[in-house]
Amino acid sequence: MMRVSVRSLCEFAARTGSLEFRYTPAPTSEEGMMGHIAVQQRRPDPYVAEYALKGQCAGLEVSGRVDGYYANQQECFLEEIKTHRGNVNRIGPGRRDLHWAQLKVYGALLCQRDKRDSIALRLTYFEVRDELETTEDITFEATELEEYLEELCHCYISWAKQETAHREGRDNALLALSFPHPEFRTGQHSLAKVVYLSAKNAVPLLLQAPTGIGKTVGVLFPALRAMPEVELDRVFFLTNRNTGRKLGLDGLRIILESQSLSLPLRVLELSSREAACDNPDKACHGDSCPLAKGFFDRLPAARQQAVEEGFLTQSALRRIAGEHNLCRYFLAQEMARWCDVVVADVNHYYDQFALLYSLTIANEWRVMPLVDEAHNLIDRARGMYSIALGEAEMLYGIRKVPAPLLKPMSELESAWASMIRPFLDSDEDIEQRRYYLKSVPEDLNTALYGLISAITDYLTDNPAAAEVQNVLFTALGFLRLADKFDEHSLCTLEFETFAGSARAKPGSAKLLIDNLIPADHLAQRFTDAVSTILFSATLSPADYHRDLLGLPQTTHFIDIESPFAKDQIDLRLVTNISTRHHDREDSLEPICERIIAQYKAKPGNYLVYLSSFDYLNTVYKRLGALAPALRLLRQTPGMPPFEREQFITDISDTTPSVAFAVLGGVFGEGIDLPGDKLIGVFVATLGLAPHDEFHEVLRERLEARYGRGYDYTYIYPGLQKVIQAAGRLIRTPEDRGVIELIDARYGRKKVRSLLPKWWGI
Question: Which of 152, 157, 183, 192 has a CA-to-CA distance to 90 between 20 and 30 Å?
Answer without folding.
Answer: 152
